[in-house]
Amino acid sequence: MKNYYIICLGLILAIQHCVTSPILDDEQIDEHNKLYIEVLKDLREFALKTGDELREYVTRVQEEIEQNNEKYFANKRQEKLVKNYEKNSESNSDMLALYELSGDIIDFATDDFAAKDEEAKKFVEKYKLVEFSEKIREAVTKFYDHISEEFETYAHELDETQKHEQQKLFDWHKDFTGTNEIIGKFNEIVSFFELFKPTLVKE
Question: Which domain of life is it from (predicted)?
Fold first, then answer.
C-alpha cells in the first residue's frame, strides 16, 4: 500500500452540475468531466463513512484492551487511521490524508487475522476481528461495484465520437473490471485519477 500514499490527487471537492467533456492529452486536469467528479465523490463518501466505522471499532477495542490490561498485537497503521479520519472530517480536508485513509481501510479488509497461538486466537475471537474485517471488505466491494455502475451510466450517455475521444477511460475500465483482487482494484482507482494528471508528491 506504500505506493498509494505518495500520490496527491490534486482534486476539486466541490460537486457541481457538469457536462460530459473529453479527456485531453495535455497536462490540464479536465475537472468538468462528469465521471471524474462522480468517482471523486464516491471515493470521499466511501473513505469517510467506512473510515468512521473502522475508527469507532478500533477505538472501542483499544479502550477495552486498556481497561482489561490485555496484550495488543494489532498493526500500528490501524491506530493511525483515527488521525487520518479526523483530518478528513475537517472542512479543509487534506486529500493526501483522504487517500491514506482509504489505504487503511483496504489494509484492514485484506489483513490476515489468523491466530498463531491460543492467546492470539482468544483475542481475535473476543473482539470479532475476522467478522469485522469481512464487514469492511463487503463495504469495499460495494464501493468498487458502484464505480463500475457509474462508468456504465456515463458510457451510455456518450455518442460514438465521444467514446472515441475518451478511449483512455474505456481502456481503464477494462483493466478495472479485469481484476478481482481488492488491492488490484484500488490500484486501478489510482490509475483512474492519474488519467487526469494528479500532482505527485515525493516522500
Answer: Eukaryota
Domain contains 9: no
Is the CB of residue 17 less than 8 Å from the CB of residue 36? no
- The string of pLDDT tens digits covering residues 149-174 is 999 999 999 999 988 888 889 999 99
Contact 55, 81 (CB under 8 A): yes
| Contacts with 46 (C-beta within 8 Å, 6 or more apart), sequence order | 102, 105, 139, 140, 143
Domain that holds residue 86: 30-196
3-state secondary structure 76-121: HHHHHHHHHHHHHHCCCCCHHHHHHHHHHHHHHHHCCCCCCCHHHH
Instruction: Tell whether 141 is covered by a domain.
Output: yes
Give domain status of residue 202, yes or no: no
Q: What is the pLDDT of residues 171-186, one digit of tens each?
A: 999 999 999 999 999 8
Long-range Cβ pairs for the range 138-144 (8 Å, 24+): 139/46, 139/49, 139/50, 139/53, 139/105, 139/109, 140/46, 140/50, 140/105, 140/106, 140/109, 140/182, 141/182, 143/42, 143/46, 143/50, 144/185
How many helical (H) and strand (E) elements, i.e. helices and strands, does the chain have? 8, 0
Total tally of structural domains belonging to the chain: 1
